Amino acid sequence: MLKYVRQKDDIIIVGCGNSTVGMNLYDANYRSIVSIDISPVAIKQMKELNKVKRPDLVFQQMDATKLEYNNEKFSVVIDKGTFDEFMTDSKEETVALVTKYIEEIKSVLKSNGRYICISLLQEHILKTVITNLSQSCAIRIIRCHDVESKALDQNESSIPVFMVVATKFSKLHAPVNLLTVEIDKAILDVAKSYFDFIEDDKSKVRIADGIDYITQAS
Ligand SMILES: C[S@@+](CC[C@H](N)C(=O)[O-])C[C@H]1O[C@@H](n2cnc3c(N)ncnc32)[C@H](O)[C@@H]1O
């Protein structure tokens, strides 16, 4: 994760619980870190645990779907397991809550800032991430092999864990007109049926051989 977070970043950890992520960053000389959680118990414990050794760590009890921060305050939002906890099913009210959560994240995030989400990324979560973030962010998904091997080393069962890094487009870059050339129509069908991809004036797809297409276009 450190590859995507710099020491000068203004970081918020949403749904921190009792996790050591903020403490580990602090010990690696990151200083601007705010951690929030809806649980007053977790926040009280974290304040108590860190008040002497890590006095600059800030913990606040707050609802992540109603963040009380200014727009574009943070350059990094870290979410470890919180999205997964929100999105236990695909019911209408759950999707509405998660959509509100993502809107809050996008508004507190600066342009070019990163939303880093550690998740088990089941299909309904992946779909929601893509649907809600792909218009305003560049999305990269990385499988966390080190987390999985650590669990195996400790004789624990290991399930795939992923890190989604969504980088918010700067105002200069969004939105663009996009032409995609794809050789296999089946890929387009998957994008439409599984990821709600819609062809429109801004996003068009040609089914063709990419090299032929570029040769003819040049
Ligand atoms: C699965 S736990 C993950 C905790 C921690 N990030 C970790 O990695 O151990 C999800 C956390 O999200 C918090 N949470 C749930 N709903 C929340 C909300 N609306 N706003 C803020 N935090 C919330 C829970 O209290 C819990 O601490």
Automatic annotation (TrEMBL):
Alphabetically ordered keywords of this record: Methyltransferase, Multifunctional enzyme, Transferase
Residue ranges of every copy of the Methyltransferase domain listed in the record: 14-137
One biological process term in Gene Ontology: methylation
InterPro entries: Lys/N-term_MeTrsfase_sf, Methyltranfer_dom, SAM-dependent_MTases_sf
GO molecular function terms noted in the UniProt entry: methyltransferase activity
Family: Belongs to the methyltransferase superfamily.
Name of the featured protein: Methyltransferase domain-containing protein
Biological classification of the source: Eukaryota, Metazoa, Ecdysozoa, Arthropoda, Hexapoda
